[in-house]
Structures are given as C-alpha cells and as structure tokens.
Amino acid sequence: MDVAFIIETIVKIVVILLIFSALAGFGTYFERKVLAFMQRRLGPMHVGPYGLLQIAADGIKLFTKEDIVPQNVVKPIFKIAPVITAATAFMAAAAIPFWPQFTVMGYTVHPIVADINVGILYVLGVMAIGLYGPLLGGMASANKWSLISAARSAAIFISYEVITGLSLLAPLMMVGSLSLIDINNYQAGGIGNWIVWSQPVAFILFWIAAFAETGRTPFHLVANDHEIIDGFGTEYSGMRWGLFFIGEYANMFFISFVMAIIFLGGFGDGTIAGAIQLILKVAFFFFFFLWTRAAWPDVRPDQLMWLCWKVLMPIAVLNVIVTGIVMMF
Amino acid sequence: MHHEEPFKDRNVSENSAYYYVDIEAYPETGWDKFKQVVKRTFSGELFVGLWVVLREMIKFDIHTVQYPKEKLPIGPRYRAVHKLLRLWESGYERCIGCGLCEKICISDCIRMDTRIDENSRKEVTEYSINLGRCIFCGYCAEVCPELAIVHGPRYENASEQRAHFVIKDDMLTPLDLLKAGEQAEYPGFGAIIPGSDASVKKTPLAY
Questions:
Q1: pLDDT band at A231 (very low <50, low <70, confident <90, very high)
Q2: Is ipTM beyond 0.95?
Q3: CA separation for the pair B185, B188 (Å, rounded)
Q4: Which domain holds residue A188?
Q5: Distance (Å, rounded) from C-alpha B159 to C-alpha B72?
Q6: What's the total number of domains in chain A?
Q7: Hey, of A40, A45, A315, which one would you mutate to test binding to chain B, going by the most B CBs within 10 A of its CB?
Q8: pLDDT digits over A162-183, tens only?
C-alpha cells in the first residue's frame, strides 16, 4: 500500500464528505422550492437572490444555536445517536461509484472510495446500521414522542430491509456480482440492457423500500410532525439535529445513486454522456422524493407493516423464484 | 304537541347547493377487502395526485403575495387607524369641535380641547385618540356630522410607542398633500351614500 494510494483515498473521502454535506443543504433548498411551486407558493425568497442564501442562513443558524442536552436523557447515547446517522450515511457512500473513471493530467481517477467485491451488500448493511441513530436517539431522549418514533423506526427499517434484500436478489442473480461497478458494466450496452426492463417488479419494490429506508413522505411516520412532533429529533437542537438532517438527505442522494446504478444503467459505458446521464437519473430520483411529498398522504404504521409483510414480501419472493426458474431453463 | 326543530338535513334539499357525498360501504368480508385493495392499487389514484401537483408546478400560477413589497387592497369600509380630514376648498379643518365622537366613544379613548378663536369659530386645539384602548368600532366616524374623523386605510400600526399614532398633526391631512389633491375621501361609516342627492326630498312646509 503506497503513499499515493492513501493520499488519493483521503482526498476522495474529503471530497465526497464536502460535496454531499453541501448537497444536503442544496437539497433542502430544492425541497422547499419544489414543494412551494407545487402548492402555488414561492418558497424562500428573501435571503439572497431567489432565496439562494437561505442555505447559508440555515447553516449559520444550526451551527450557532445552543446545544441543549435535556436533564433526564441518557447523555452518552443521546450525544452519539446523531453521529451514527450521519456517519453511517456517509460510510455507505464508500462503495458507490459516483462517476466513471477519468484521467486528469495522466493520472487515472476512480471516483469510488473502495471498489470492494461485496459493494451493494456493504451499502445496504451500513445503511441498515443507520437504524441505530433514530432508535438510540429516540430511546435516550426521555420523551414519549421520541420513544414512539424509535419504536416505529425500528419496526420500519427492519421490515423494509427484507424488501430491499429480496428485491435486489433477482438482479444480483442475473449479474452474478455484488460489486456496483460490475452491475454497472453489465448494463453498459445501452438503454436496452438496463436491468429495469428485465426486473421491473424488483425495481418498483426497491423504489418503494427506498422511501421507507430514507423515511420520506408516504412512509414518513418516524417523524410525522402532526402526530409525534419531530419524532426522534424532538429533543435535539442545533448541530446535533443538523447531523440527523444531513444524514437523511445524504441517504436520499446515496439511495438515488444506488437505484440509478443497479436498475437504470448507471453511468453506462463510462463516457462523459453516460456520466451526465447518471447525474440526471439521480436528479430524477431525488426530485421524485420531493414530488411524492407534495402529492401523497402518509400511511399509518399498521398499514405500512401490512404493505411490507403481506404484499411486498410475497411479491419479492415470487420475483426471486420466477427469476430463478427463467434463468435455469 | 311536541315540536321538533329540524336540525338535521335542514340545508339539504332539492334546490340547495349542499349534497351528500357518496361514501362506499365498508368492506365486510375478506374478499371485499381484497377487491377494494386491488381497485385502489390499480386505479392510479396516486398518479392522479402526482399529475395534479406537477401540473400546478408547470403552470407556475403563484398565489403568494410578498407582503411588505406587495399589498392586497383592503375593503373601503375597513376600519384602520383614524385620520382627520380638511375641507377641500379652504383647507380648514373639517372638525367643528362638536364633541360627538368624544361622547359616543364606547371605550372612552377620544379627548379634545376646543376654544373660540378670533373669528368666533370654534377651534380644536387638541385632539387625541388612545389607540391602546380604541376598539376600532367606527362609531366616531359614523357620528361625525362633518366627515372629519374617519378611518383611514393604514392598518400597519406597529410602532415603538402607541402615542405615535395619536398625535393630531399625524392624523390631520397635511396642507401640501391637500393642495396636491391627495386627500382621499372616505367611503366607509358615516360617508354619504353614492347617489344620495337623488333621494333628498324637500321638507314639506304645508300641512
């Protein structure tokens, strides 16, 4: 292991951290604007031109707010829970190829921190550890709303891990590799080779599960404002709450990347056009997260469990079986 | 005989705009529930919702009023902070110091001082309204025989001192604005109804 490799990896890590922390901020801006336009409002308009500096204002507010640790909370766990959410979200990014490899001044850059051969397994596994952020934060908060939220998030995340795992099984059987780069190269032939055409059911299932994994609107019940205030985030303030927030938005971006790479061909053959296509696909998935928030109602926890165990899981299992039978003959 | 007030359905009739919303019967058996789920899943209701919000985004028909920059028009009878008006021709104050507003004010917040000036005309030396007490009922404007005290259109009455609103010089139309023809006539309480000239009848003298 030479020094150049270590320096390169550290640079990549820093770049990914900075870009996606900033994107989390821009994500909130886009979310506010898109939601506002869909509801015939203007959204943020006063800070900077068209409200663009609202991100900076929010950041300054979060950084300078008093860090309140309430009296009856379990202090070490309360303090570490937001770090778990943000850290696991960014750790998941290690195995995601964000861009095809390119050459800068004769030096070939692979925009992936670690191309490990169990890439997608690692990504899903680390995202699953992200459960401990809401769970521990909610349980340590000494607040009944947080406790309800912790219980809900445990139920939802664990249930929908089953859906993500089972729905990805069928495409992985076809590709024969867990590395996201191998999955991408499997679809390099063009739009006809995308796995979404051969595995539409798996695509829909994974997309639905992605909403549960990120806790976005149809399945937003871990932090439903109108019933449990901010759920696990109720007792948090300042940058601790901000870490939960960055974790949530980073998760949205990363799961969008995963969906685009596994089902929609990723960056294709690795040309510049393919790279731009990947960005557009990710942008669409991110936009869809915001779009559904404007359009769809939330479901109840029991409906969510019903959907998971009685509808999605049988379909996912059937999909795996049918794929296996088709591949065998 | 016992009479029962028809509280129920009293607005629902053939001609009324009210009507009952169709509510489907709740599913009883498992098969009915399954049919309902299938219907709701494949009828595309979710996509209708997506389309509606996307349509509104594309139409970009924004209804936001950016308040400090834009203001909505207020109704002519809106009762905001008071104004004292001047006579159009001479520029004298309309107020004749009759004291009716002081008398009728139900929250007792109007106070005026008067004197007889050199021309034997009653002059109002002090006129103040305690806006901390005023309930903006409009009685003063309604009772005023000269249309002198009126409710102006200024509804932004936040200030460091409430007293800032009740200085007579602030309520009174400045002379230069009057000469520029910028004194707005007041159409609200106590104002003359449009076309009221036609309804004036001569006092009958012969019985």
A1: confident
A2: no
A3: 9
A4: 3-328
A5: 21
A6: 1
A7: A40
A8: 999 999 988 988 888 888 888 8
